[in-house]
Amino acid sequence: GAVVSQHPSWVICKSGTSVKIECRSLDFQATTMFWYRQFPKQSLMLMATSNEGSKATYEQGVEKDKFLINHASLTLSTLTVTSAHPEDSSFYICSGAGGASYEQYFGPGTRLTVT
Amino acid sequence: AQSVTQLGSHVSVSEGALVLLRCNYSSSVPPYLFWYVQYPNQGLQLLLKYTTGATLVKGINGFEAEFKKSETSFHLTKPSAHMSDAAEYFCAVSDGDFGNEKLTFGTGTRLTIIP
Prior knowledge:
The complex is a heterodimer of chains A (115) and B (115). Helix content of chain A is 0%, strand content 52%. By secondary structure, chain A is mainly beta. Chain A starts with a strand and ends with a strand. The chains are: A mainly beta (115), B mainly beta (115). The interface between A and B is medium-sized, with 28 and 25 residues.
């Protein structure tokens, strides 16, 4: 199956700083990428959907100025958490979808801890 | 609007016993249905999916699920549980025709295998 990677897998940052998470589709072109957030022992919550070359579409309640998403190419999307706070600590998962395969391919996730 | 209900946030079965994880969905259009498995601190792995055609779908690791339109259900089963099946399982629904539509996830079921 198609492979999606995320970098870093784990990051610790200080409150008030920004952190960037990369999501790459390694062997397919992801025309659409999705960013999810998962709190401990909870389900995935969709944060935003991005199409290559377009502005991301954010879900209701997600601050677009805080969670900056860029989908610059068919194989790379980035999520930047700006001015991070401890409540932003979470597990962030991206997925990529391309073509009519009815399937999203998920990355391994990035655990963000804000101290 | 779509929704997914997973009955039972925790399910425990003995090794070798039948695994049954329940999923009911709500969708205004013919749904595409998915089961994902998540191991600790990892992303999601697709177990199986239903799009069209045969309603009994076989997936990886011996799992299968049956789409029952009349019951709006897509329950996941495995005849004989293995210790390695212990994980979190998510049911998801999509209404997309092109594979790029967003997924709506259930709240997840944590499966514990008793030796």
